[in-house]
Amino acid sequence: MPAPQPYSCGLGPAFDVIGGKWKGLILWRVHTAPRRFGELRRLIPGISEKVLNESLREMEAAGLVRREIFPEVPPRVEYSATPLGVELDIALAPLAKWGERYAERLAAEPA
Question: Could you tell me which of 41, 11, 15 has the C-alpha nearest to residue 29?
Fold first, then answer.
């Protein structure tokens, strides 16, 4: 196991668990209601099955997402945000708002 990274501020550990293109979107989709894998694929255009599966496993290992298996035939699996995941989603909301304003600014700039 690699040695833990030294951090100079809280952004380091936060980006360690949420870094990448898709994890923030996944968290945003599961924080309000439990979602099934296929539903997440439909709600997040462009994500591959492999990347969604890997991201969900990493987020589960980090304690952000809960995976619940229902004993049915066929088995039903739902993903939902843990309290830690909800807390992170709330913390990411201002960053998302900033991103929206920044994208509007870029769109308004002459080419």
Answer: 41
| pTM tops 0.70 | yes
pLDDT at 19: 86
Q: What are phi and psi of 16, to 5 degrees?
A: -60, -40
Angstrom distances, CA of residue 86 to CA of 6, 54, 58, 80, 111 = 26, 20, 16, 9, 39
Q: Tell me how far apart the alpha carbons of residues 83 and 78 are, in angstroms, rounded to a whole number.
A: 16
The class level of CATH for 17-108 reads mainly alpha
Consecutive 10-residue averages of pLDDT for the chain (111 residues): 69 86 94 95 96 96 96 92 95 92 90 70
CA distance 84 to 91: 11
**Residue 16 tokens, joined:** 């360690």
Measured CA to CA, the distance from residue 12 to residue 19 in angstroms comes to: 10
